């Protein structure tokens, strides 16, 4: 697994300048997202690990490797392909001078994919991870662009199934933003923000539109914002359009913020157990966050 930094910069610039809605920085083989060694089953089930990857943690890896919940079409099947997706436009975050650059994050994402393969030796799905970049802050927008991109790619491979079914893999902090009305209103005081939010999410989850799902990792402990988020998600939880899963007692406590904070302190090595071996090596090599 490798990517050229020059190629990654070129594709990143293409997305940031609006010349391309989405680019794949890395694909594991020419037939991706179709299986490499078996006939494809319709519809293709594709998971998207959507994060800022600043840096990727073992919680990201656990979420990416979690089995597909037995819900909806193709219940009992695992995902056919995976995408680790980096958005260069986040609804809540801007790039700081101490953060890893987007190219560094893409390189760490590739290392995370390598560690996923090492962790799942012999598992074909572990060799089905692509690395992508998109310039889109909302999940409704991401789903629309991903579906158009994937349909065109699959058609070019001579295969025409129904549209792929997308499952976004998120942490609870991201789900809180997905279900926050303030991101959907025309202004911070828009009285119709909540109605607009539910209208957008109905499009995201509806079988007649994007037909997507969200799988979200639970946190170690509950909080008031989490309770409010799950209350707004109630109807989507009951329809199994949003599904909560456990990724491990330790992993659910890990955070990228804790890693960056530890790396900012002299001689604090607590971060080392929160990342995969290849990502740890890269952070040290690039002298990130210190």
UniProtKB/TrEMBL annotation:
Gene3D superfamilies: HUPs. One of its GO terms (cellular component) is cytoplasm. SUPFAM superfamilies: Nucleotidylyl transferase (SSF52374). InterPro entries: Rossmann-like_a/b/a_fold. One of its GO terms (molecular function) is ATP hydrolysis activity. PANTHER family: NICOTINAMIDE MONONUCLEOTIDE ADENYLYLTRANSFERASE. This is Nicotinamide-nucleotide adenylyltransferase.
